[in-house]
Amino acid sequence: MPRLSEVIAVLETLWPAERAESWDAVGTVVGEPDQEVTRVLFAVDPVQETVDEAVKLGADLLVTHHPLYLRGTTTVAASTFKGRVVHTLIKNDVALHVAHTNADTADPGVSDALAGALDLRVVRPLVPDPTDPEGRRGLGRVCELDHPLTVRELAARAAGRLPATAQGIRVAGDPEALVRTVAVSGGSGDSLFDQVRAAGVDAFLTADLRHHPASEFMAARAHSPLALLDAAHWATEWPWCELAAAQLDEISDRHGWGLRVHVSKTVTDPWTAHAASSATDISGAPN
Ligand SMILES: [Zn+2]
By CB neighbour count within 10 A (0-12 exposed, 13-18 middle, 19+ buried), where does 88 fall? Predict the structure, then answer.
């Protein structure tokens, strides 16, 4: 059985902490280095539901994409939401390790997993990491489709392949436009609009798109058919859990560790229901 410190050393080779953004908080949050690890759970969010899932599963290590504490704190009292998480982890001997922006830019990383879930062929990073001489690491991915799809078909594919959420997929642009190339970025992607425009792709699939940035992006795209596809943040990052679990599984086999590696089945998207509009479309109404 490997010790926690050995498993974490391996995770650090996949997602080195020094490749995280300066504002990020990655690495081990809770854990006893000498503790033996037999079972690992991967999840997007370090929330009570996924921690409870780890405890129920008998996992010794929970690896999440999102940090528990992004800023400093003065309390881990169990009366606080995050303090309760810390207490549950320690009381049940479950370690917590975070790979966030260092997993986003890794090769393979979060957006490779998103592209893979949609059967998109990755061509290059959308924003290459300047410190990578091979140009394989970076934020987002520019991808090609083996066969062109309409925006509507691509949205349907995303809705069918990503885990189910109340939101589904929202589309901006002509649903019948043909898509041959698509940029993808797991998580919030509206800071990447300039790079998406420069990439000359037909569509951009990401999450958390807001009214003003999306409106301005659509207005500025001139005559390009560029469409936006907006999925739930959690759903765009969940495929990484499967990719990361497979990576650790393979390493465990190589070391003869016999780790049991699991992927969380808990939906931690905060949105739980969706009502399609049923009011009259006001655009055709007489003034
Ligand atoms: Zn995220």
Answer: middle
